[in-house]
């Protein structure tokens, strides 16, 4: 698993206004916040294709909360408040 610093560098690779030092400071802040509340997580790095532009991809870093089913992949259409397990109707 990449570190938070590596994930932020990956996601910001096309953003000239974020220097490596600035990203490192932000990574330390996120890491200390996650540690302070005991957040268990896993990080993922993806390259998402942009269909309108052949060969173009966007770097995307995400995290998953370990032990939680709350996930964008469980959201239902139009559900902007709940991103947990699907509910029965």
Quick description:
By secondary structure, the protein is an alpha+beta fold. The chain has helices spanning 4-11, 20-36, and strands at 41-49, 57-65.
| Number of H- or I-type helical stretches | 2
Strand order of the largest sheet: 1-2
What is the tally of beta strands?
A: 2
Calculate the terminal CA-CA distance, rounded to whole Å: 37 Å
The assembly state of the depicted protein chains is single chain
Shape: flat
Biggest sheet: strands, sense, closure? Answer: 2 strands, antiparallel
SSE pattern = HHEE
Structural class: alpha+beta
Strand content: 15-25%
Percentage of helical residues?
25-40%
Low-confidence stretches: none
Radius of gyration, Cα only, in angstroms? 16 Å
What is the count of distinct domains?
1
- What is the average per-residue confidence, as pLDDT, rounded to a whole number? 84
Walk me through the structure.
Helices cover 28% and strands 20% of the residues. It is built from two helices and two strands, in the order H-H-E-E. Strands 1-2 form a two-stranded antiparallel ribbon. Helix 1 crosses helix 2 (20-36). The longest helix is centred in the N-terminal third of the chain and has 17 residues, at 20-36.
Question: Which key features would you list for this structure?
Answer:
89 residues, alpha+beta, two-stranded antiparallel ribbon, 2 helices
SSE map:
Layout: H1 4-11, H2 20-36, E1 41-49, E2 57-65
Antiparallel strand pairs: 1-2
Helix pairs in contact: 1-2
């Amino acid at each position: 698993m990449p570190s938070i610093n590596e994930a932020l560098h990956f996601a910001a690779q096309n953003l000239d206004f974020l220097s490596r030092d600035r990203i490192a400071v932000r990574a330390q802040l996120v890491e200390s916040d996650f540690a302070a509340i005991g957040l268990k997580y896993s990080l993922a790095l993806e390259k998402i294709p942009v269909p309108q532009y052949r060969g173009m991809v966007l770097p995307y870093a995400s995290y998953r909360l370990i032990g939680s089913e709350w996930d964008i992949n469980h959201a239902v259409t139009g559900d902007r408040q709940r991103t947990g397990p699907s509910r029965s109707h």
